[in-house]
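Justification of resources, computational component.

The compute hours requested in this renewal are based largely on the per-chain cost of generating structure records like the one below. Each record pairs the submitted sequence with a full structure-token output. That output is archived, and it is also reused by downstream analysis tasks.
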Amino acid sequence: MSQDHDRESTTAGAPRPGAADLITLRGVTRVFYGGVRALGGIDLCVGEGEFLTIIGASGTGKTTLLRIMAGLDEPTAGQVRRDPAIARTGGTAMVFQDPALMPWASAFDNVWLPLRIAGASRADAHAQVMAALETVDLAARRDALPAELSGGMRMRVSIARALVTSPRLLLLDEPFAALDELTRFRLNDVLRGLWQRKRLTAVLVTHSVYEAAYLSTRVAVISARHGHISAEMAISGDIERNQAFRESTAYFDYVRRLSTLLGQAG
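The structure output for this chain reads:
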């Protein structure tokens, strides 16, 4: 992790004991055509088993940072080191804001897609696909087309598609931004439960300090002025995330502190 002097940090929400860093970024910058700078020197580690959330104002390069972590984009300068466990095919999966499902294909066939691309037949992939659908409680809707599913269900299909390859690292780019608040709360619980049961490492990009405080073990704030990580805050991993936590003073204290750090990041 970067050691900037203005960073708020504790050890409560640090990566699990003995965990290795799956991704290490040092001095990562990204400048697009025409000199537009998306990132201005990112120092960040992603520890195995943690739930890291990245927040920042619009245009601060959060999605660009996630794409660099996924290997979908390359930095203009700086170093990105990936653990071999996630560098191999299938080691990393990404969920986007738009579920991007094939409208003519069933939920089953949409989840099968990554395995199909890898050469697995429908029959050979059946058990894996059904297990992925079961994890998001959609096994009973396996034959439904996307148009027959609610927005929340379509996003769950997208998450199942990401999970079907059994990735070690799950990257999520504002997957719940377009959903109503109640559906968002429910999918937050689904995501948190998946992270715990499958012992994933998760990195989430969101605009919501409420979502960040609820889901994360650590939150990193990107500065709008400088394009680097201006602050980090750990959140106790010992707290059970449920409705009681959402209504607790501890939760609102985390939200308040994150709001302050976000405001300071400009």
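Confidence is low (pLDDT under 50) at residues 1-18. The first strand starts at residue 21 and ends at 32.
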